[in-house]
Amino acid sequence: MTPSARVQAAIELLDAIISSARDGGPAADTLIARYFKDRRYAGSRDRRAVRDHVYDAVRRAAERPESGRAAMVGLARERPELAELFNGSAHGPAPIAADEAGTAAGVVPGWIDPLLAAPVEREALLGRAPVDLRINRLKADPERVASFYPDAVRLSGLPEALRLPEGAPVEQSDPWKWGQVEVQDAGSQWISAACGAQPGMTVIDLCAGAGGKTLALASAMAGKGTLIAADTIRSRLSRLDPRAERAGATFIETLLLDQGHEAGALQSLHGRADVVLVDAPCSGTGTWRRNPEARWRLTPSRLDRLVAEQARILDFAAPLLAPGGLLVYATCALTDREGRDQVRAFLARHEGWMAEPADVPTGRAHGDGLLLTPAHDGTDGFYFARLRRTA
Ligand SMILES: C[S@@+](CC[C@H](N)C(=O)[O-])C[C@H]1O[C@@H](n2cnc3c(N)ncnc32)[C@H](O)[C@@H]1O
């Protein structure tokens, strides 16, 4: 492909990503993979160049662009070498008109900005993310595994964590093939640690998804006790089985919940759990550095629905705890509605609960919980709180 044809391909892909974000369709990575599957003539250098153009344009635009061309023109206005490729050559984009408006640059969509927790540093939300590993104690000793990654940095307070540079080829390493490490952002590792799961406990991961945090809880429990992973989406939960097998965490039980009818399925667990983790569905505002197009998907009404769902999940989670048990509420969101205010509202609705400090040497206290941000903590953005059932 010529350099101009790569720009045109990026424009076409951006059109698809924009429509998909508007209509709740597949993620950008999926669309890019599909695009190249149908275009075998594109070599690996073409693919890399097109992908870079696409992600540069996505990262640059806070608001959903009008079109792929507007997004690329906005980028080209800042990069003369890119602007030159709008030259009308075969398979390339038409020249940029003098009055052609490109998409404006920005980090946070205008309507979301006032909703973010005040301490959040905006620029870093779109920064580059390192590759964090979590060493799986069910299969390996952290010191031995660390010796396989001489470039890794240890993270103070997280003895199972290793930090590698962005793009490190972890899947080619032996510990990964042997199930001794999982790729997991340090923020997720802090949340799992804040659950204080111990061998022999009864622990419920109520929004387990594909089980990223479930596996960390399993490692902390040394494979002993009861660990239940629940979710409402079968395809997500079914991805946990092979991961658990690989990690040697075969004691995990899975529970598929029926959205809106969860309480019935959970009735037999009432009053039994030592720990319940609610890693709630959320706006994902803390993970934009990995999914920058998520900014184009969120709408005010979608946020309203998420906030209502989080409150509903907390309400059916609460009766699961035994007296003295710990409910950990977490989101990878940085809006106060989903974090600080959600926890405050839970404590106002439920008697016999108190927030207790998260005993972790990271983050910033915010309301009754803790805020983690890329700039301050080097993690994805999270909010979490530890809520103790006192009665
Ligand atoms: C943030 S994700 C969980 C990520 C997962 N804990 C991890 O560490 O990889 C939120 C999950 O909540 C699930 N969910 C949404 N509504 C739910 C409900 N009413 N009950 C249980 N899970 C729900 C979603 O399907 C999604 O998998």
TrEMBL record:
- The entry's protein name is MFS transporter
Which residues are listed for S-adenosyl-L-methionine binding in this entry?
Answer: 231, 258, 279
Active site per UniProt? 332
> Could you tell me the superkingdom of the organism this chain comes from?
Bacteria
Q: Gene3D superfamilies annotated for this entry? A: Vaccinia Virus protein VP39 (3.40.50.150)
Which family does the similarity line name? Belongs to the class I-like SAM-binding methyltransferase superfamily. RsmB/NOP family.
Instruction: Identify the keywords attached in UniProt to this record, alphabetized.
Output: Methyltransferase, RNA-binding, S-adenosyl-L-methionine, Transferase
The record ties this protein, via PROSITE patterns, to: SAM_MT_RSMB_NOP
Q: Does the keyword Transferase apply?
A: yes
Give the organism, scientific name.
Answer: Sphingobium fuliginis (strain ATCC 27551)
Q: Where is the SAM-dependent MTase RsmB/NOP-type domain?
A: 112-390
